[in-house]
């Protein structure tokens, strides 16, 4: 055998004897639990850890703001429908929840509706006896009140009223509008920007007879896609300058005066102008004295 290998073997043995070793105790065998007992213990632990779900606790739990606002939106929609159907008498919160089939809401949601949500909602009005009613934009009862509103808007120069607001405010709106339209009391105009209909009072005293040829010419000119600048440019090309004095005027900046190139003349001081004669005589006297000397 190679002596070098024998030498390395002896060194390895010496090193192994010098290094300390720790013996591990043998672990005791665990008593095996039957499978049936394991299943029972797991089921009991799961039943203890998982809380029972209750409808009321779930709906009133924290983080259910989406549910709360869903309840509020349903209430507001129901109150609007009641008002449009002519049922304008107020209701308590319990009556509203009963009509909307939401009696299963929790106490926290009811408290939130009673003290905060319905009080601060712009579409709900609270009566002195703590009942709730729909708050329309205009207080309209019938077509006479609508016609009065349109007349006031026309006299004050406020223009028309949106049809959506009238439909929301006036009970049985379609019937009233149909009667007023048959009587030629109102006019509908579609707003081009959002295609919403605007309701105006038809003031028949301001109507004038207009020649049919002029009406045809008027309707043949389309200016929907033109702004004021394009209309003014078209009129200038046609030699019409009647619109120059109309519309908002552009502010004209004042012209600044240019500084002249004049040379500055330094003026003599004028402190002793009243002694000019005295100085001249004094200078003459001094000259004569010098000459005589």
Automatic annotation (TrEMBL):
Tetramer of two alpha and two beta chains. Residues 252-267 have a biased composition (Basic residues). GO terms for molecular function: DNA binding; TFIIH-class transcription factor complex binding. It holds the Pfam family TFIIE_beta. The lineage of its organism: Eukaryota, Metazoa, Ecdysozoa, Arthropoda, Hexapoda. Keywords: DNA-binding, Nucleus, Transcription, Transcription regulation. One of its GO terms (cellular component) is transcription factor TFIIE complex. Residues 1-57, 240-267 are annotated as: Disordered. Residues 60-141 form the TFIIE beta domain. One of its GO terms (biological process) is transcription initiation at RNA polymerase II promoter. Belongs to the TFIIE beta subunit family. InterPro entries: TFA2_Winged_2 (IPR040501), TFIIE-bsu (IPR016656), TFIIE_bsu_DNA-bd (IPR003166), WH-like_DNA-bd_sf (IPR036388), WH_DNA-bd_sf (IPR036390). The keyword DNA-binding applies. PROSITE patterns: TFIIE_BETA_C (PS51351). It is found in: Nucleus. This is Transcription initiation factor IIE subunit beta. Residues 1-13, 22-39 have a biased composition (Basic and acidic residues). It comes from Phaedon cochleariae. The keyword Hydrolase does not apply. It comes from the Eukaryota. Recruits TFIIH to the initiation complex and stimulates the RNA polymerase II C-terminal domain kinase and DNA-dependent ATPase activities of TFIIH. Both TFIIH and TFIIE are required for promoter clearance by RNA polymerase. Gene3D superfamilies: Winged helix-like DNA-binding domain superfamily/Winged helix DNA-binding domain.
